[in-house]
Amino acid sequence: MKETIFFRVAFVVTACVILWLAITSAGLPFVSYSDKLNHGFAFAVLYFLADFGWSNGRHMRHKAGGLLLFGVLIEVLQSFTQNRLAEWGDIGADVVGLAIYYTLHQPAAKVAFWRRWLTPPH
Questions:
Q1: What is the dihedral sign for C-alpha 32, 38, 44, 50?
Q2: Domain extents for the chain?
Q3: Among 35, 64, 77, 83, which is least packed by CB within 10 angstroms?
Q4: Centroid of chain to Cα 84
């Protein structure tokens, strides 16, 4: 149960930080990679946290759908800012990040050594 609470809190904090970074002029000065890589990585991490935080809840595709809506919300909010641009490519990068987590999680969870670390707590 403590693990579930940890992942839920981590998910909310991470989502808030991502939203704040997406709609403010602040950035991560130490991150010099492509914006699309940042999107993909952020959404893979969010999917991981959602998967472990709500393991007894909805199916994986529902979590992915909710996160995709979050990505669309970010782009809509960015369209109202003066310092950010809403881009379809960002939503595409979000989808790629979600797909990467979904694809890698399934086979990795079957490997006995990793099962303890990759299987969501019950």
A1: positive
A2: 2-25+32-118
A3: 83
A4: 20
CA distance 20 to 65: 21
Measured distance CA(110)–CA(84) in Å, rounded: 41
More confident residue, 80 or 3: 80
Question: Within its chain, how far is the Cα of 98 from the centroid?
Answer: 7
* pTM score over 0.85: no
